[in-house]
Design goal:
The structure holds 2 protein chains of 2 kinds. Chain A has strands at residues 5-7, 10-13, 19-24, 31-37, 44-50, 53-56, 65-68, 75-79, 88-95, 105-106, 110-114. By secondary structure, chain A is mostly beta strands. In chain B, 0% of the residues lie in helices and 50% in strands. Chain B is built from no helices and 12 strands. In chain B, strands 2, 5, 6, 10, 11 and 12 form a 6-stranded mixed beta sheet that branches. Chain B has a 4-stranded antiparallel beta sheet with strand order 3-9-8-7, with no helix packed on it. Chain B has a two-stranded antiparallel sheet with strand order 1-4. The chains are: A mainly beta, B mainly beta. The A-B interface holds A 3, 40-45, 48, 55-56, 89, 91, 93, 98-101, 103-109, 111 and B 4, 32-33, 35, 37, 42-47, 50, 52, 91, 93, 95-97, 99-104, 106-109.
């Protein structure tokens, strides 16, 4: 069974440029998460989707970040414009069920460097 | 206050030694879940275990074992006869709260270095 797929794996951009990350969750997983992970820290949730609905986006900086999950499968996370402080690893995860008991499966992440 | 505390920032041991990674959590919920994840140098977080708050039985999986003690709010992870491939950052995480606000609360991670 294929795992969570993310692309690109690495991205280097200059500040003020836009950037987009793509995620394909495990087949059949209704719940999709986007996390941000800074070096030496645990992941921080940005947004959670149940199918195509964003049910928790309270920690998404909406002035520059946006996300979508059309058709409830693939998802895209966008930053526009990027700032130096956005340099981090962006992780996508998916889980089978709703609620707090579901284990999350993570993709390899996209390492973003903003110059 | 941190809800999940992994006090050990980095641990270094020689191969074949046993090593225990500590995790202390804080919650007012009676029902909650605890997790351990491994993050090797490749970067992908790998699920290791999930334990619910009503199951205090210790669990063993090969060289891995987990000790869950509600009395001390701890969920420690032991690797027996460590191997170089165990080198990674290990995260403990807590899930609590109403389902509508579900999220994992992560510790800061413990970097484990296994020397050959």
């Amino acid at each position: 069974e294929a795992g969570v797929v993310q692309s690109p794996r690495y991205k280097i951009i200059e500040k003020k440029q836009p950037v987009a990350f793509w995620c394909n969750p495990i087949s059949g997983h209704n719940t999709l998460y986007w996390y941000l992970q800074n070096l030496g820290q645990g992941p921080e949730l940005l947004i959670r989707y149940e199918n195509e609905e964003a049910v928790d986006d309270s920690q998404l900086p909406k002035d520059r970040f946006s996300a979508e999950r059309l058709k409830g499968v693939d998802s895209t996370l966008k930053i526009q414009p990027a700032e130096l402080g956005d340099s981090a690893v962006y992780l996508c995860a998916s889980s089978l069920g709703y609620g707090r008991s579901g284990e999350q499966f993570f993709g390899p992440g996209t390492r973003l460097t903003v110059l | 206050a941190q809800k999940v505390t992994q006090a050990q920032t980095e641990i270094s041991v020689v191969e074949k030694e046993d090593v225990t990674l500590d995790c202390v959590y804080e919650t007012r919920d009676t029902t909650y879940y605890l997790f351990w994840y491994k993050q090797p140098p490749s970067g992908e977080l790998v699920f290791l275990i999930r334990r619910n708050s009503f199951d205090e039985q210790n669990e063993i999986s090969g060289r891995y074992s987990w000790n869950f003690q509600k009395s001390t709010s701890s969920f420690n992870f032991t690797i027996t006869a460590s191997q170089v491939v165990d080198s990674a950052v290990y995260f403990c995480a807590l899930s609590e709260g109403a389902d509508s606000n579900y999220q994992l609360i992560w510790g800061a991670g413990t970097k484990l270095i296994i020397k050959p």
